[in-house]
Amino acid sequence: MGDSLERGAVIRGSTQLIAHIGYPTHAFKASMIYNPYFEQAGVDAVVVPMGCQTKDYPTFLKSVFTLTNIRGALITMPHKVTTLGLLDEMTPAVRISGSCNAVRRGAGGRLQGDMFDGEGFVRGLRRKCCKLDGARVLVVGAGGVGSAIAASLAAAGIGAITLYDAQPAAADALAARLRDHYPKLAVSTGSKDPAGNDIVVNATPLGMNDGDPLPMDVARIAPETFVGEVVMKQEMTAFLKAAQARGCRFQVGTDMLFEQIPAYLEYFGLPSTTPEVLRSVAKLSY
Fold first, then answer.
1. Domain 118-251, second-level architecture
2. What residues are annotated to the active site?
3. What residues are paired with 187 via a beta bridge?
4. Structure pTM?
């Protein structure tokens, strides 16, 4: 039986399904956030983890959206990139990030895709009154999450962005995609010096393990700079502790997760909520 059933929630014939598709599923957390919220708010919907291996995924995604009671799908590893080739419509965030983590069925059964990692990150910044319009930003890490954050920051009206990745080709490719979609945005690559930036972001896995080097030279971060983190393993990573010691305002990694869930709910046409409510009802275990 699923996690929601163990808490007493009832799955009815009227219940709308949200598929959480990836592999393996043992580390999935979404059902432990969404389902307690649905139960508390009286929303007749449920998130169901669905383990699907790579070879089966294209057929499965198409098949799951033939169900009449499917409301949408949360897409996670290893399928975020593969999904692009299965969509009929996609947002600029998907095109720029090269990955997709939300799918819904549109008119005529067309599969529509979006990416909410960056949206969650930006919503968190706005909630903390971080000025985005015209801001100068450094994003270290040009993988899936860094690309999604860069795309959403560009959409939010920042003025300039510097991209850095240990693999320069990844940063250059992301820069090219940003220029295509946002020709007025000043985009540069090759430096991870945080000096002179209004916002700096660690979008790398550095901080997941004890002893990881810091993603950038924290001594070069001005106290008025806003610092963002994506690592969720611990709330205060070494990077955030160092930024806090310099007097910087900051955003922890899990804020990106809890801030993007209301965006997902809106995308799927379900009653939305706040990150505070989601945190209060979540049944997370690690």
1. 3-Layer(aba) Sandwich (3.40)
2. 80
3. 161
4. 0.88
